[in-house]
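Just curious. Protein, please.
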Amino acid sequence: MFDLVIRNATLPDGRQGQDIAVSADTIIAVEPGIDAEAGRVIDAGGLLVSPPFVDPHFHMDATLSLGLPRMNVSGTLLEGIALWGELRPTLTVDALVERAVRYCDLAVSKGLLAIRSHVDVSDPALVTVEAMLEVRRQVAPYLDLQLVAFPQDGYYRGPGIVEALERALDMGVEIVGGIPHFERTMGEGTASVEALCRIAADRGLRVDMHCDETDDPLSRHVETLAAQTIRFGLQGRVAGSHLTSMHSMDNYYVSKLLPLIAEAQMAAIPNPLINMMLQGRHDTYPKRRGLTRIPQMMEMGITVGLGQDCVMDPWYSMGTGDLLDVAHMAVHATQMGSMADKRALFDAVTVNSARIMGLEGYGLDVGCKADMVLLQARDPAEAIRLRPNRLAVIRRGRVVAETAPETSRLALDGRPQVVNPAEYAPRHGI
């Protein structure tokens, strides 16, 4: 007798007709034709069951604040930062918690059950930290939330930020962040990378830095980050987020840089929606995409996880909390259109990001935590194409969100009465 059995599922690796049996909060069996009773049975009908979506880069302290204190008229990164600087003195713990928890409701409905959020520590009052720690506590039963101590204004640019970052870590924030390209000089940026990696090494923590989020090909702090990762023995614990300057770098330099990143076992976290919106702002035409070199990184064996970054905040007026929107944009922006490419990008919003975050018990293997999503799609490529409804979202063996299948009724002579988008998947062995 199991607590839950999902029957006739297709798995991301292509296996079809699989049953998934769950007892308590753990996957007990994954195989065809499990002959057992269960407290609840879900017929997947041949549709895709995936591990939950994972967002390795987000700003939960700013989410859903669009229009406060005013709109970003230029749509640029710098105006967004200026707007956040205006909003920050007015923030309260209650308002921050309310917006963030409300966003988590949306995330869960999209099958997004793990998020890494950067928390601004530029204000020594640390209202944002206090609020996000409370959010982490509230959502723990249904969402894994990691917090990054992020000096939005620059580690060395403002009074008290160095001390505030240390206090944020003392309060329970578990990852060291940075933004070296936003320091006043390249030298200070380099110094900040070394200082922050030293802190992480001393405390035994992970590192996740906004790095080279610019069109300037001479912004090369990722090289320093990789070198300091090796110097401090942080291999496998460091991620560089954005890395957009790499889109503008010359190929010879990148041919040296990517092997260094691979040697450091660094992960890369591009954010396709935001990078496409904010980069190339000084270009007329030709106009750069501004997205880092995802295909080349994947070819080098570098772990790439795709982030949402923002949803309706001073930097980005769009966003749905759906990581498949992120993967969908990545397909277009990187021209990764083959079936293998789309499978790789599906991994970038699931298993790769889980690896970056160090999530334990993640996946659909026996013994993993019973966290999964039933999608109205036939396979990962179709999931990215359709960005389909999440028919069931399961957390620790319990269904925490359900959405009815998307169908349309037609009134056309001689044509079907019902159209189901999932039934348009290719049937000819692609």
Observations:
- The chain has two domains: 2-51+363-424, 53-357.
- The domain at 2-51+363-424 is CATH 2.30.40.10 (Urease, subunit C; domain 1).
